[in-house]
Amino acid sequence: MPLRKILPLLFFVTMLAGKLSAQIYAPAANDSFSAAYNPPGGTDKVFVINKPTYKADITASIIAVSIDKLSGWAFQWSVFDPVTKVYGDIPMPGSGWFSEIDTITVSSGYQVVMTKGADINIYRVWMLFNDLDLNITNKDGENKLLFGYYNCSSLDLRADTTHLQLFYFDPVTKGRIIPYNPFVVRWKTDNDEASIPPNRLTTRVTSPPSEDTWYKLTLTDNFGLTRSDSVFYESIQSKAEMKSVYIPLSDPVEYPVGDYGRFYGNEIKSAPGKYRFDVTGSRNMASYEIDFGDDSIFVSEGDILEVVHEYQKPGKYAAVLTTKSDKPYECIDSVSVVVDLDSASSKNFQMPNFFTPEGLNNKVFRCADISVRHIDITIFNRAGLKMHSYEGNIRDWEGWDGLVRNSQIKAPEGVYFYVITVFKAYEDKSNPIGSSVKKGFFHLYR
User: Fold this and answer.
1) Entry pTM
2) Domains and CATH numbers, the chain
């Protein structure tokens, strides 16, 4: 017969055989696989039932269904004896189109003989109760990590398992068969900043977190059985956090006298200048010190969380915060921030080109300076007569009030000249101000 005519017939026979095949199954099984001793097309199955908790008492069932799903079948069950290695009948004969054993509590093997007239079918199954115990061993009764398993540089986590070995038997050779059942170890934490421990039962965490953290261990075996345990690590790590903010000369708290806000914009960082250092973000800080980078160090027991420091000269400074946790560990951490004060230069030193003594926004004549320490300035009218003069710290100069030489006589509107003969500043060497004598003019309006 040609091959093309045989193939449809083979397909029909295969479908018919599958349709008429008897079934035996375990409703509560979490996994199943064919017995390893099965020849090709063998029907022996292994069902795995995972216990919900360690050593839990559970009952499972198996159901045998006839080939034709019709009544008239006799069922005879037997159970495998692991000592004698033979099947012994169970005194529960039944008939119908299916039969069930619903009292299985331990791992064992079962055989059912289905009989209907001259038809006899024999099926075997193995019921394996899978169990696993997991315990983190280095914790106390409150689930806290035991003293001695952590220090400033690491913490150790230790766990142990009781994993009952699963096995069934080859009914012909009587040999024991152990199914492949490895488990996967997974650690996780409730702290996003904490590093995940290596996935081992006994493991070590380097660079422990500075926040209290729960470590959870989960084991999952090849059949989907999962067990978990947790331990709480009460952190001893010190974590240094520091923010720095420049305090503008217009700040009335740090500069209660001088009314600097009328003359200095907040964008100017003039020396001497103050920075506020905030360490409230630090964790587990019993004490700390700040090295401001200008040979000044502040030490605190942790009760002061904001420190104001004044830098005398312009430039960039690396301020370093070093924190220390409580005894007996005294874990140390540090962090640095860079602060800077502007240097004087011809670009950022400015004199106004007009002023209005009685105006709302410009009551006095005042320059906008960067890190100027000392100034000697004289203001003249167009005839060369001295109208005003000042020598000293530029921050103490209140400017010209528009009066002639501190009298009650108001200088008239017009053009005036200034001459700065002494100008001492912290100069930017890459952009120097230039000569010490500076001249210019401005308009006075009333």
Assistant:
1) 0.74
2) 22-130 (2.60.40), 132-233 (2.60.40), 243-341 (2.60.40.10), 354-444 (2.60.40)
